[in-house]
Amino acid sequence: MTVDRLQAAITACRACPRLVAWREQIAKEKRASFRDEDYWGAPVPAFGDPAARLLVVGLAPAAHGANRTGRMFTGDRSGDWLFRALHRAGFANQPTSTGRGDGLELHDTWITAAVRCAPPANRPTPEERATCADWLAQEIALLPDLRVVVALGGFGWDAFLRVLEGRGWKIPRPKPAFGHLARVELAGEGRRLWLVGSYHPSQQNTFTGRLTEEMFDAVWSEAADLLAYDGRFQLE
Predict the structure, then answer these.
(1) Per the CB 3.0–4.6 Å rule, which of 22, 66, 91, 172 could disulfide with 109?
(2) pLDDT by residue (tens digit) across 145-178?
(3) DSSP assigned state of 172
(4) Are 74 and 37 in contact (CB under 8 A)?
């Protein structure tokens, strides 16, 4: 299996009836401002650099964002924040992401989500999250150079830890608590990585000032510093 073949399999998934119905309903009805566009209306594949050492884990595609454009964090305000910050930190070649084919390239970075279909009210059920977990597990296996994971929000943090635990990784007890700039080193499958938490760049957080651009930039600076650290992740 390659990352490209995995993404092709993801886009064909119809395992969750509620999510299938919702994503296709949204793609048919559309938002008025996008009525002339063809919506993706399918599971959204991850994308980026297959040799990435940095993994970004979001919650799920937005109904009129990635569910419309077919690319993670593309076409909504959360994505506007994310790609501006990644560009400032040197992880993206441009600060905007408007649609597939817009010239965006990620450097040393892979962007994914815990759930691959847009969920009603942006709230996947525990069953839907569990169904999608294997896609993320397979991605981790196909990213051998992975060293740092940034979880955008508590949902992504918890989902990532569950996936690692299911693969036999050593998860500290009590379970590491999510927080902005929370950080934990994890070990498993003959390698180590850092998990870093960030408030999600949703409008709920950015409009209220819970997440500022300075706070968000600090996350990517932390990720860059961890990648630059030459500890070689030696196992005990």
Answers:
(1) 91
(2) 999 999 999 999 999 999 999 999 989 999 999 9
(3) -
(4) no
From the list 72, 52, 54, 90, the residue with the least C-alpha distance to 195 is 54
- What is the DSSP secondary-structure string of 4-40? HHHHHHHHT----HHHHHHHHHHHHH--GGGTTSPP-
Model's pTM, two decimal places?
A: 0.94
Instruction: Kindly report, residue by residue over 174-216, the tens digit of the pLDDT.
Output: 999 999 999 999 999 999 999 999 999 999 999 999 999 999 9
The C-alpha atoms of residue 187 and residue 172 are separated, in whole angstroms, by 10
Question: Per the CATH hierarchy, to which homologous superfamily does domain 3-228 belong?
Answer: Uracil-DNA glycosylase-like domain (3.40.470.10)
R_g over Cα of the chain: 17
Q: State how far the Cα of 105 lies from the Cα of 213, in Å rounded to an integer.
A: 21
| Distance between CA atoms of residues 216 and 51, nearest Å | 24
Determine the residue type at 92.
Answer: A
- Cα–Cα dist 59/196, whole Å: 15
Give the residue extent of every domain in the chain.
3-228
For 113, the enclosing helix (H) or strand (E) is strand 109-113
